[in-house]
Amino acid sequence: MSTQVPPFLENKTLLRLLRTGVFLWMIVWPLIILGFWLSLPKLPESWITQFVDVSKYTITPCVPWIGSAVSLLPIAIHFLLCLNLIRLFNNWLKGIIFSEQTIRIFTKLSLFYLLGTVSGILMNTLNSLLLTMGNTPGEHILSLSFSSTDLSGLGTAGFLYVLAFIMRQAYQLQKDADLTI
After folding, report:
1. Residue 51 in contact with residue 127, Cβ under 8 Å?
2. Does residue 1 belong to any structural domain of this protein?
3. Measured torsion, CA atoms of residues 142, 148, 154, 159, in degrees rounded to the nearest 10
4. Domain for residue 80, yes or no?
5. How many domains does the chain have?
6. Counting CB atoms within 10 angstroms of each CB, which of 87, 118, 135, 136 has the fewest?
């Protein structure tokens, strides 16, 4: 089965650099999120109100720990997304570009991107509730927002899924053509 390799996939240095960048981001982003929650009582008010759209909040001693625990789900999704990107780059470095394995990776990427977008929407809601749970009754805030970033995330997840579907169909056609005499 002969396929033409796109020029950027022939640049092994670029692929290694991208793989390393994704690996570093896989490690650094969870540390930033957990660091934010654990240092929450010491952070300036402007940082907190920029992170979550609440004007009045109370930080009880349990808020940083609950925030860290609740953040573990989006962190796990982030980790799985980065891990699959690294697998994709490893395949490309080995010259495995158009295969069933690559198609499965693209399908997983679309799923994790969708889950990451949905968990981000839910996390904003939980963060507003978490930061105001120590407020007096009547001053708790539960906000649900859907931004253009969330719409972009859903669009990217959909694009990756369609790309995986098209790749699967093309791969099947290529396999059928290879069997034809």
Report:
1. yes
2. no
3. 180
4. yes
5. 1
6. 136
130: burial class by Cβ within 10 Å (0-12, 13-18, 19+)?
A: buried
Q: What whole-number distance in Å separates Cα of residue 9 and Cα of residue 93?
A: 8
Question: How is residue 41 annotated by DSSP?
Answer: G
Name 56's Cβ contacts closer than 8 Å, sequence gap at least 6: 132, 135, 139
What's the domain range around 83? 7-179
Burial of 106 (0-12, 13-18, 19+ CB in 10 A): buried
Question: How deeply is 41 buried, as exposed, middle or buried, from its count of CB atoms within 10 A (0-12, 13-18, 19+)?
Answer: exposed
Q: For residue 49, is pLDDT > 80?
A: no
C-alpha 141 chain-centroid distance: 26
pLDDT digits 0-9 by tens, 14-38 = 889 999 999 999 999 999 999 988 9
147 falls within a domain: yes
> What is the four-CA torsion angle of 94, 100, 101, 103, rounded to 10 degrees?
100
Q: Is 67 a member of any domain?
A: yes
Beta-carbon count within 10 A of 120 CB? 16
Q: Which tens digit of pLDDT belongs to each residue from 77-127?
A: 999 999 999 999 999 899 888 889 999 999 999 999 999 999 988 988 888
